[in-house]
Please model this.
Amino acid sequence: MRNVIFSLALLAPGLFIACTGAGDDTGAGGDNGGDNAGDNGGDNAGALAFEDFVNTTDTYIGDSACFDGTNWIDQTPGAGCTTDVTVSGTVSDFQQDEPVPGASMNVWLSDDINGAADQSFDVDSSGAGSITVPACTPMGYETYTPDEWQETVDTYEVHQVYAWSSAGTDTDTWNSVSVATSRLIPSLLGLEWSPGTAIIAGTAYDCNEEPIQHAQVFIHDASGAIPADLAVRYFANGLPNSDQPDTNDDGLWSAINVPPGEWIVEMWAYDGAAPVLLGSTLLTMEPDSVVISNIYTGIDDGVYLPASCLAACE
Model:
């Protein structure tokens, strides 16, 4: 099965690049992630503002016909679509695409990683394991290895959805991010990943699940506050690039130094006249972790259901 929560790109040997809730438009941003005086993650000389993050005047390229700009798309599963499906999967290194033997997994059927996990297990020596979850229903998972191994960082995917199947089975790859990989994006950008914060990696998608070009990402909490040291970066020629002002044709973006807690991650784009909010997702950050999550046009909570889930499955 194709994982509908992220897109993974390995475009240069040895290099990792990231995959991959509507809020108010108050708050702040940085020069698309520069320090707080214009280069986000710097000396906090000035308060971050929405206009610092959302400021492109390049009209976005992508299909937004599914969204009228006001009414979010209904993602209610069809009748009979939420029966259980058993997913056979492998915990795999995000960069090398190789199994991670002995990794552990936590699974939250509620899609809320704040509470106790509903399932916890260790994968086998080939990185393989299985979970049984309701189809067409968002869930979340975490992969990790023992701290003493100093091998991986806690890696989360939320809003994960598996399609209904008459056979009641599916397959997947569960991502694990190595310590080395987690340090690569900040280092390529000349940034430091602050201890205790998280990194988000994702893709901006249009109505056809194609990447949107010239989209920008803005992050704030429920009160409109923006992380003080937040840096948002985009990609150019397959690599994170401090000079890239918005998403390229791959739609890839990353956010660095997101503090623990609940954050609203929004996708904005310029429609030729003004910035417009195209989609958003609600994410919970854990310290020193990597979260993989995409943003979809017309979706305000990050939960994207495949078409097969929206028609009756009976």
